[in-house]
Design brief:
This protein is of the alpha/beta class. The N and C termini lie far apart (about 130 Å). The strands form 2 sheets. Strands 7-6-5-9-8-10 form a 6-stranded parallel sheet, sandwiched between helices. The protein has a 4-stranded mixed sheet with strand order 1-4-2-3, with helices on both faces.
């Protein structure tokens, strides 16, 4: 192998015979550059290393430029800084408010306490007839049939009546639709205050004023507002004195329920309680018998349903809860003759109500 080394960067001179003669400007392969052949980058630093240190010179201690606040970065989880200053990965102390992993839950049934919509001709007409407090009424420009009657009633009460486009009513009723569809407003919507709930004692007093035995419907976990509205409508038609619903695991009287009730919420007293079992105990103390609707109960035809009675309707899917079922005086069922062994909660409640009225009439 030849001892001749390769050069990088040397230009061949004229008359070069091929001999490799190194000069001070030549850079042979594997050797460091000469002392006077230096190339500095920035702050007088040789690219070849610590050139200045080798020659005994001092390093340039000129301050460097920083971006932001120099030398004030806080360590992440390390000590050696002011304890009053929080590092980014340290948790808050006991004397400080702890961080919440999630947002606080909204107030239950908050929407019921705010003004809401009365949707549909029957709901608005009955609200106007009963003298309920209404802020304003929105109607379409076409006043056909019963819609003209509603406008006349509203103007007789000196209420604000505004004619709007049908698309506006569709937008207002969109959140109250069922199954992803817009609620059928039938061309009229009214802004009204929320339903005023009463107490159980008010329902008992209403029956006493009429001189009748108390007849009450208790709903244990009915979650569908359309079922709730249907039951309230049937309760008014069957002559029930009131309906009791729960605050938890139960539908409240919203605009959808009022629409499904066809305005019956204006005439039926509705009590909302915290505990359904405690409400049943209160009814028992008032001399009311408790009949729970259950598939395994006694047939309604043979069950004694005369006199003061409260019919308890359970959840659409699970039925009566165990505690409520045990607290009932007896269970009643509806005879079934087809392939399906259950009924809709609203339909079952209506059948039991009218069976009770039939027995009272005998």
């Amino acid at each position: 192998m030849s001892d001749q080394r390769k050069d990088y960067g040397r230009r061949p001179s004229s008359g070069d015979t091929g001999a490799r003669v190194h000069t001070q400007y030549d850079r042979p392969y594997g050797k460091k550059p000469f002392a006077d052949d230096k190339k500095s980058y920035g702050n007088d630093r040789s690219y070849s290393g610590d050139y200045r240190r080798k020659n005994g010179e001092q390093r340039n201690e000129s301050p460097k430029k920083s971006y932001g606040r120099p030398n004030e970065r806080k360590p992440y989880g390390k000590s050696g800084y002011d304890r009053n200053e929080k590092p980014y990965d340290r948790r808050s102390g006991r004397d400080e408010q702890p961080r919440r992993p999630y947002e606080p839950a909204p107030v239950e049934n908050e929407r019921d306490e705010q003004p809401y919509l009365l949707i549909g001709r029957n709901a608005v007409r009955e609200a106007l007839k009963s003298g309920r407090s209404i802020d304003r009424v929105l109607v379409t420009t076409e006043h056909d049939g019963s819609l003209g009657e509603i406008v006349t009633l509203a103007r007789e009460r000196k209420l604000v009546v505004r004619e709007v486009d049908r698309k506006k009513l569709d937008e207002l009723c969109m959140p109250f639709g069922h199954g992803g569809k817009t609620a059928n407003h039938q061309g009229v919507v009214a802004y009204a205050a929320g339903v005023t709930y009463c107490e159980i004692a008010d329902i008992l007093d209403a029956a006493k004023e009429k001189g009748e035995a108390p007849f009450i419907i208790v709903l244990d976990g009915v979650e569908d507002p359309h079922n709730l509205g249907s039951i309230i409508r049937s309760a008014d038609c069957a002559g029930a004195h009131g309906v009791i619903i729960g605050k938890r695991r139960s539908a409240s009287v919203t605009a959808a329920a009022v629409k499904a009730s066809a305005g019956a919420t204006e005439y039926v007293k509705i009590a909302r309680v915290v505990n359904i079992s405690a409400a049943i105990t209160q009814l028992k103390a008032a001399g009311v018998w408790i009949a729970g609707a259950d598939m395994n109960g006694e047939s309604m035809r043979s069950a004694a349903m005369k006199g003061p009675l409260a019919i308890v309707i359970g959840n659409e899917g699970e039925g009566l809860s165990k505690l409520v079922r045990d607290n009932c005086d007896f269970l009643v069922s509806i005879p079934m003759h087809g392939h399906i062994d259950s009924l809709n909660a609203g339909v079952a409640a209506a059948i039991l109500m009218f069976e009770k009225k039939r027995q009272d009439a005998e």
